[in-house]
């Protein structure tokens, strides 16, 4: 086994790294109402962040543009009476997109975990119908322009932060926080070679494209019925064919089969869940997408279409994004969000077995 777990791997992936720095920033923006029934919580917000960052010198870094790992904490203050604020802890990866004179355009992606301070309560906070749980998944993306100054760098740009519990607990419309970013990063010590960057070199190997397969057992839990929440345990399988065309990238295509009792429940919320037949809960779909490797971590996105739905409860097309983590050459863990046009269905967790053709 290569690591004790996903979180530990994120911390250790920077161990073969240098160019350490700390960064502090603010992100003024908005808590936006992405549905009409959320207008009452729409408000200005202010975010504050502190990050520890390292430029990676690992093998995989040679295939990305000057990647920088970061681990950080953020606090978001909401001005509304029914929302209060939220805290997040996240890991993120920054990659350079283009040089513009002395400045560099960068893309930052950061998953993590968040804690919302004030959530929906049927007696004390009925007007916040966006989030029903304190603990949530957190995701942040941003485009940042980095400009060097006498000591360190300044960053400015735009991005969006998102809190959601992936339909694990009702309600789950989520918080969307578009904002501006203003950051300052300060180096810790001197980089190697008297401050001159020694870029990692690509792995010297006669790489040849290869194909492999994977089969996964998946599990996801979600709630339905806003007034009287009922929990559902979804179970299923995923089969994938992957075409790896570089050290860090692969195409994915395959099938999904999932048992979901919410189809029948949406038609009759008094139904005995144990009496629902296989045909009334089986959904089958085909999906295709792409994945990128960062060490043993795989970031993936997919789009799918249902071949069979017991009812029209869900949109005919679905999407998926998330992470798989390789434990060994054959075994991996899954943590993916399945959604329909931005609305979360549930969080897929599971175990994957993979083998080469």
Secondary-structure topology with pairs:
Blueprint: H1 6-12, E1 17-31, E2 43-56, E3 68-78, E4 85-100, E5 103-116, E6 135-148, E7 153-164, E8 175-187, E9 210-224, E10 230-244, E11 249-259, H2 262-267, E12 282-294, E13 297-308, E14 317-326, E15 331-340, E16 343-356
Antiparallel strand pairs: 1-2, 1-8, 2-3, 3-4, 4-5, 5-6, 6-7, 7-8, 9-10, 9-16, 10-11, 11-12, 12-13, 13-14, 14-15, 15-16
Descriptive account of the structure:
With 357 residues, this protein is mostly beta strands. It folds into two domains: 6-187, Porin (Beta Barrel); 210-356, Porin (Beta Barrel). 4% of the residues lie in helices and 59% in strands. The strands form two sheets. An eight-stranded antiparallel barrel has the order 1-2-3-4-5-6-7-8. It has an eight-stranded antiparallel beta barrel with strand order 9-10-11-12-13-14-15-16. A hairpin with a 2-residue loop joins β4 (85-100) and β5. The protein is flat, with a radius of gyration of 22 Å. It starts with 5 loop residues before the first helix and ends with a strand.
């Amino acid at each position: 086994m290569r690591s004790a777990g996903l979180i530990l791997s994120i911390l250790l992936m920077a161990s073969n790294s240098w160019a350490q720095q700390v960064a502090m920033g603010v992100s003024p923006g908005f808590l936006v109402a992405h549905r009409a029934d959320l207008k009452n919580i729409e408000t200005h917000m202010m975010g504050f962040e502190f990050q520890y960052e390292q430029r990676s010198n690992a093998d995989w870094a040679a295939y990305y543009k000057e990647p920088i790992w970061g681990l950080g904490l953020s606090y978001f203050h909401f001005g509304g009476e029914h929302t209060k604020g939220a805290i997040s802890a996240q890991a993120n990866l920054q990659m350079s997109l283009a040089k513009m004179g002395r400045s560099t355009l960068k893309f930052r992606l950061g998953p993590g975990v968040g804690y919302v301070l004030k959530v929906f309560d049927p007696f004390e906070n009925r007007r916040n119908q966006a989030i029903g749980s304190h603990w949530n998944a957190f995701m942040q993306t941003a485009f940042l322009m980095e400009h060097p100054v006498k000591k360190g760098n300044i960053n400015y740009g735009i991005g969006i932060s998102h809190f959601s519990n992936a339909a694990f607990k009702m309600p789950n419309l989520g918080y969307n926080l578009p904002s501006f970013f203003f950051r300052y990063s300060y180096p810790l010590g001197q980089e190697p070679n008297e401050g001159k960057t020694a870029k990692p070199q690509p792995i010297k190997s006669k790489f040849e494209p290869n194909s492999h397969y994977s089969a996964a057992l998946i599990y996801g839990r979600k709630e339905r019925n806003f007034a009287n929440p009922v929990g559902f345990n979804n179970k299923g399988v995923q089969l994938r064919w992957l075409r790896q065309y570089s050290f860090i990238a692969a195409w994915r295509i395959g099938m999904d089969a999932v048992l979901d009792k919410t189809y029948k429940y949406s038609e009759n919320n008094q139904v005995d869940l144990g009496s629902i037949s296989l045909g009334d809960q089986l959904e089958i779909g085909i999906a295709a997408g792409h994945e990128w490797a960062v060490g043993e971590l795989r970031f993936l996105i997919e789009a799918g279409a249902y071949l069979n739905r017991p009812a029209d409860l869900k949109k005919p097309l679905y999407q998926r994004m998330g992470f798989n983590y390789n434990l060994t050459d054959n075994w991996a863990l899954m943590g993916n969000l399945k959604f329909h046009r931005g609305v979360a269905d549930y969080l897929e967790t599971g175990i994957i077995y993979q083998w080469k053709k």
